[in-house]
Amino acid sequence: MAEKEARLALPIGVHAVVTEFGENQEDAIERCIRLQPQPPPLLSELEDGDIVIAVEASEVYWTDTVMATGQYQHQPRLPYSPGSVCGIVAWVSEAATKRGVKVGERVLSGGGGPRSLGRHQQWGGCASYAVAPSTALQKVPSHWTAAEAACFGYGSLLPCRMCRPPERPDDTHPGCHWRGGHSCCSNG
Questions:
Q1: Cβ atoms within 10 A of the Cβ of 102, count?
Q2: Distance of CA 37 to the CA centre of its chain
């Protein structure tokens, strides 16, 4: 009998999985995305530099629904979980530890999920767990909720002097109505 591969010691979760491409966005949402049990990652799937995130929030928007039709400029490999990733670090590799990543930190990953390339592509945020490269993490400011941070996952919203006042009263991004002491983002 074959020996069972070892997994991280985390509970079974759930993930939304795009199992096939839809004919259009409505078909993709209604027919091609399934909720399935999600076992924790296999230890053999993890590489030095990886982290595992216990997902708290994810943003899914128009681009994700187009991707689920297979008609987006960047076509993910099936099956995959859509969405950006924000959550709590549940596991760190040795290289991630050396970069200063700690278990228990709230992070946002811009380097995993269906819009990435390579082996992290399957690990989108509509899941209990996501695997991401530690080089693509951003710490979430303590005054942000996970839902607020998830909106920055794919970089379509560009931080504008995020979390600090402008250097000069007129130091703002075009379209930004922020003045000292507030946060601002610009839809890019």
A1: 12
A2: 19
**pTM, two decimal places:** 0.79
**Within a domain: 4:** no
181/173 Cα distance (integer angstroms): 15
CA 120 – CA 136 distance, rounded (Å): 11
Evaluate whether 33 touches 14 at the Cβ level (below 8 Å). no
**Domain count of the fold of the chain:** 2
SS3 state at 22: coil
> Domain range spanning residue 170?
156-188
Is 7 a member of any domain?
no
CATH code at position 83 = 3.90.180.10
Distance CA 165, CA 172 (A): 10
Closest CA to 56 of 140, 154, 159: 140
Domain match, 100 and 57 both: yes
Q: Each residue of 9-24: pLDDT tens digit?
A: 999 999 999 999 999 9
DSSP states of 102-151 as a string?
A: -TT-EEEESS-STTS-GGGTT--SSBSEEEEEGGGEEEPPTTS-HHHHHT
